[in-house]
Amino acid sequence: MRMKINDIACYLPQNRLTSADLSALNQGWDMEKIEDKTGVLTRRVSDAKETSLDMGVLACNKLFDQNPGLYEKIDSILFCTTTPDYLFPQNSYILHKELNFPHTVFCLDIGLACSGFVYSLAVAKGLIATGVAKNILIVTAESLTKFIHDQDRACKPLFSDGASATWVSASQSSRGIIDMDFGAMGKAYDAVYIPAGLCRMPVSEETKRQTIDESGNIRTPENLSLDGKRLMAQVGSHIPRQVRMLLNRNHLSMDDIDLFVFHQGSKLILDSLQRLLRIPPEKNFRNYQYIGNTSSSSIPMALREALDQEIIKSEDRVLISGFGSGFSWGTAILEI
User: Fold this and answer.
1) Please, how many CA atoms are within 13 Å of residue 28, restricted to the half-sphere of its CB?
2) What is the mean pLDDT of residues 76-86?
3) What mean pLDDT, rounded, does the chain reach?
4) Tally of domains in the chain
5) 112 and 208 share a domain?
């Protein structure tokens, strides 16, 4: 039995951070060069008191508005975020409270960023296959901009905040997830991470001290740290190989895929994957230009937009692939 994506709803904060805003904040930055690498023209930034949970609730309410009667069907919540409201209890339980779900609803949190949506689909598929759940609410939400230094040229122009809510259930037809594959490289854990703030490095006066890296990025150990060169090396090494392997395992070719929806990491990353996999530009979906890199929400947001624009149609095959902190990666083939 396959599992299918029934619907997706998304939420983006109202606050926009344009390239002109960034240029005013950091007058020494070459925004034309930055835009050429990131591809991002506008970012979305959550309010100071707006959290990942808040955004997740808004995405869920939108999903329920789109699907009358769905609320009563939900029997499981998966909340994927690396920026939870509390250390514990985590966001799925607070979402349970905010939406007043019955006590029979299963709750679980997944602490992954850019690969998180694909991993969440795998967990959901397992819950359905074992009979634990029938209708699952997958929520992805991040408020990473709260952890980015204003003068960090690697992160500030790239990341946005936002949330998605996805309804998945068992499929009685050929629609749904055809196959999935996953990988991890723990040795690259510090290519994308926030060093300070928990048990390994508690917050102190030392963690508030600014440093400048070899590329001129300013940050403290309490800020998000991104090593772009190491990240690109991981992506180039693992993602094309996994995509080809998954296609071969299912007796499919690149031509059999109607649309490729990668994590919207940056223009540089998607250009590289397009070149390495020889994907026609029209088959490599992109929407980072006006919403930035929304981490775990980037794939569901891209799917939602592709559906709205009718780029994806019924019975299309879509390949999705997420990759990021961990280092972790996951790829799935879907039939819409």
Assistant:
1) 6
2) 98
3) 96
4) 2
5) no
Percentage of the chain exceeding pLDDT 90 = 95
Same domain (yes/no): 158, 217: no
CB 244 within 8 A of CB 257: no
Residues 226, 152 share a domain: no
Q: Which residues pair with 78 in a beta bridge?
A: 108, 138
Return the number of other C-beta atoms located less than 10 Å from residue 160's C-beta.
30
CATH number, domain of 7, equals: 3.40.47.10
101 with 77: CB under 8 angstroms? yes
Cα three-residue angle 274-81-266, rounded to 5 degrees:
25
Across the strands, what pairs with 137? 77, 167
Last residue of a domain, one of 142, 173, 204: 173
Q: Is 215 exposed, middle or buried (0-12, 13-18, 19+ CB in 10 A)?
A: exposed
Same structural domain, 164 and 22: yes
173, 191, 214 - which closes a domain:
173
Answer yes or no: do 233 and 300 share one domain. Answer: yes
Q: Is there a single domain that holds both residue 29 and residue 76?
A: yes
Asked if 42 and 16 count as a contact pair (C-beta separation under 8 A), the reply is yes
Confidence of residue 173 (pLDDT cuts 50, 70, 90): confident
Taken in order 5, 312, 272, 254, the sign of the CA dihedral is positive
**pLDDT (0 to 100) of residue 281:** 97
Q: Are residues 266 and 195 in the same domain?
A: yes
Query: Residues 308-329: pLDDT tens digits?
Result: 999 999 899 999 999 999 999 9
Phi, psi for residue 181 in degrees, rounded to 5:
-150, 150
Residues 27 and 46 in one domain: yes
Q: What is the pTM of this model?
A: 0.96
pLDDT classification of 27: cutoffs 50, 70, 90: confident
Q: What is the residue type of 312?
A: I
The DSSP bridge partners found for residue 317 are 335
Which residues form the domain of 215? 178-335
222 Cβ partners below 8 Å, 6+ apart? 147, 194, 195, 196, 197, 203, 207, 208
